[in-house]
Amino acid sequence: SLSPSMQGLVDTSKKIYHDKLHDVKSKDAKQAWVVTAPGRVNLIGEHTDYTQGFVFPLAIEYSTVVYGTGSLVINKNAEEVSKANLKFASATNPDKVEQVSIDVNTQPPKEAGSWTWYVAGTVAQYLMKDLPKQGAVLDATFAIAGNVPLGSGLSSSASLEVAVAQFIECILGPEHAFSSEPPGALPAKIRAIRCQKAENEWCQSPCGIMDQYCSSAASSTQKGTLLCIDCRTNDFEVVQMKQDPDNPVALIVANSAVTHSIGGGEYPIRVQQCKEATQILQKVHGDRIQTLRDATVEDVLKCQKQMDDVIYRRARHVVTENARVIATKTALEEGDWKIVGQQMNLSHLSMQKDYETSCEEVDILVDLAQKYKGVYGSRLTGGGFGGCCVTLVAKENAKGLMEHLQKEYQAKVGKDCTPFETTPAPGARVLAIDTF
Ligand code: GAF
């Protein structure tokens, strides 16, 4: 059985599909797929993924649902290039039916465009990789409904991409989906890589793989788990958040209500600064440094004179943050909340001072949380420059903390921070198949 909020998304997308999209063409369809993919909160490991480091996120209940029908026809003798015809609408603007056609030669847009590129870019990965170059026609008609707050650092775009990917896999079926991949390739991992590529190439966003990976691969069977992802090998470990019945904890997310976009502005600058830092480290330490993942704090310290202050601090954040992820993972497995909290606080400080991805409003929120009774640690989560903070607090103080944040943030910033408690949620999955 679905949670009321998930059921709400399913009902909304189903209604949009039947009211706006179920036209003459799709009436031939015998069944509709209902799929979902979640947003995420990152417990720790920020801005480490695009330098092949470690991240430690959990999926959250806020998700995107796709409800739709589709077909794949392959005519081996046809000379026409393979294409995908997409017709879709979103709950944000259900009256606007989008129609996008792409073929295997369609190039990604050169400039940031509409949200529909997240969808088209994702479908393109399957079209280009799993289908023959000629003769395939993929038709898909679908409605999208989501409740991941947009631009809040909780991965609304990754949950959209991963839900669309999951839906396209349903249409392709096991015969075609991932047919270009080596035998034994993990669908959740390949899906994440494809969705990241869609975002990098079709949406002008140089993001790492964390968000798509968590949305795609968070465990649907092992309750209460996080993913510790090695962004070099793209392998992951499912880590249990060990609750002590005598001393339970809660994770609280609060939103600064300052929205951000990772496509524009500061995020790409950080990516570039990491590359600069790596080049300097390579000059001094040689080829053993392929990315910042390979450097220790001592390595960075030794290069301080060769780096300007900004580059030095960027590198210091990344290498210390990787170490904090490893320390947090061990502490979390042992239920050592004090250590987890300390690492979270240090991570925030590092983002504030070294990586400069926080902002005044987020700092206010984190400060309010860190000083509240029963709180082990609090930090900015996600890309930054706004967005949410995540706080680890003794369960008995969770309700009080949420009320405190709500009241004090409103008083200090004049905005609603809509705090909520989150527990690790499952990753992308097929919820149902509706037959007509
Ligand atoms: C954003 C990006 F999409 C992720 O890949 C990651 O870099 C994160 O910012 C920062 O840790 O969510």
TrEMBL record:
UniProt domain GHMP kinase C-terminal: residue ranges: 330-409
Domain Galactokinase N-terminal: 30-67
GHMP kinase N-terminal domain residues: 123-215
Domain of life: Eukaryota
GO cellular component terms given for this protein: chloroplast; cytosol
Keyword ATP-binding attached: yes
Cell compartment(s), UniProt: Plastid, Chloroplast
Protein transport in keyword set: no
Molecular function via GO: ATP binding; galactokinase activity; metal ion binding
Gene Ontology terms: biological process: galactose metabolic process
InterPro entries attached to this UniProt entry: Galactokinase, Galactokinase_CS, GalKase_N, GHMP_kinase_C_dom, GHMP_kinase_C_sf, GHMP_kinase_N_dom, GHMP_knse_ATP-bd_CS, Mevalonate/galactokinase
Gene3D superfamilies per record: 3.30.230.10, GHMP kinase, C-terminal domain
Pfam family, one: GHMP_kinases_C
Keyword terms: ATP-binding, Carbohydrate metabolism, Kinase, Magnesium, Metal-binding, Nucleotide-binding, Transferase
Membership in a protein family: Belongs to the GHMP kinase family. GalK subfamily.
UniProt name for this protein: Galactokinase
Native source organism of the sequence: Seminavis robusta
Lineage start: Eukaryota, Sar, Stramenopiles, Ochrophyta, Bacillariophyta
